[in-house]
Amino acid sequence: MPWDLLNDRPIYTQLLEQIKRRIVSGEYQAGERLPSVREYAAEAGVNPNTMQRALAELERDGLVRAERTTGRFITEDEKLIQKLREELAKEQIEIFIQAMQALGYSRTDSLELVASCCQKGE
To answer: What is the mean pLDDT of the chain?
Structure first.
């Protein structure tokens, strides 16, 4: 998956968000070893210090663990991953609701529209 980095926000924040998405989507499996900071930074086209900062924050959040001699690994805590997945989904729903409100839809109307679209697609 390519790294889509924009100049509108800090790069480390965007790296953090993209790694989180990769974890919750299953692209990175629980317990999987991540590339080294230098490898990861080269892949993303960023300074290693920037990648280090993003990974350090993931460690603080408990999504990544570091082992001194073998590298960094995705957490095996499936409940933590599921909780993050739900938080990210709720953020996306709120963004959608706000966009619909900008079009003149109420929250209820937006949800009804989604429900009707889902029924048609079944």
So the answer is: 92
Of all residues in the chain, the percent with pLDDT exceeding 90 is 83
Scanning the structure block, which residue is given the tokens 């991540």?
Answer: 34
pTM: predicted TM-score of the whole model, two decimal places: 0.80
What's the Cα-to-Cα distance from 47 to each of 29, 52, 110, rounded to whole Å?
25, 9, 42
Query: Is the CB of residue 40 less than 8 Å from the CB of residue 15?
Result: no
| Span 24-40, pLDDT tens digits | 999 999 999 999 999 99
State both tokens at 72.
Answer: 């960094």
Q: State whether residue 90 is helix, strand or coil.
A: helix
Torsion of CA 87, 90, 92, 98, to 10 degrees: -140
**19 CA to centre of own chain:** 5
